[in-house]
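Work through this:
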Amino acid sequence: MRTTLFYTLALLISAGCQEIQDFPGKDEQKATITLELHRQTSKTRAIDETTIEDVNVFFYQSNNLGLVHHFYATGASHTIDINPGDYTICIAANIHKDMGNLSWDAISQYLVERPVDGSVTMFGMTRSNITLTTRIISAKVTRNAAKIGYNITVSPEAGDMDILSVQLCSIPNKDYLYYDDRAELPDPTGGFSNSEVRTMSPATKNTAGIFYMLSNRRGEVTSITSQEQKNADKAPANASYLRIRTRKGNNKVLDYCIYLGANNTYDFNVWQNDVQHHNQGG
């Protein structure tokens, strides 16, 4: 299942606000823009998918994509002066550093690290013709990470089977800050790793949780026609999967691998901002 999670950043025309940054350019009457970040916080998980802690904002000329201005800011409200014009505005949230004055090509190739704890990176883009009468500009920012949920239950028919641990495997270490779904981009050269092993208490029969990961576009294997065939023998190299370790009886340990994707058969893609839910009974 693929869904889009977004938060709205409002660029408001304002007067007499704080922290004004002046755009370079010809000396003419300028519009004053206030960037307001609408933030939500979460205290329930190590990775927070809602908080916006900082932003890098880039203004590019829409006609030639030349960089006009960039600023980095923390906090909830920031004001700048800008010459009226037609702009493509890019917003990168939770990079946790000043990205500098990146060209359009540079931001298109910018790589982010996989989420481990704290906030997740987000990106948004909008085009706006800013005039002296402009009052508000809205943009969507979506998280880079996909959200992988799992719900695992041992059925009564399985007898004395217990769940020992759950782990997300073959996670890309890096990914592009953004990309068009239709673009054929090469894989980032960041390698792959596994998540932490989530161990269970003794005699666990049910467990549920969430992992976050960067996109992993492994493609499709159209020869797969059933869920049973979606396994290690047919999966593409470096495809992501959940590894569920169980114990049967006193000493028989079994691993079950659930490969991620848009369906239970031939698809092995995990996209930016995906939400996938995997239910497993055994």
In short: The two ends are 22 Å apart (CA to CA). Residues 1-8, 12-27, 38-45 have pLDDT under 50 and may be disordered. The chain is about 0% helix and 50% strand.
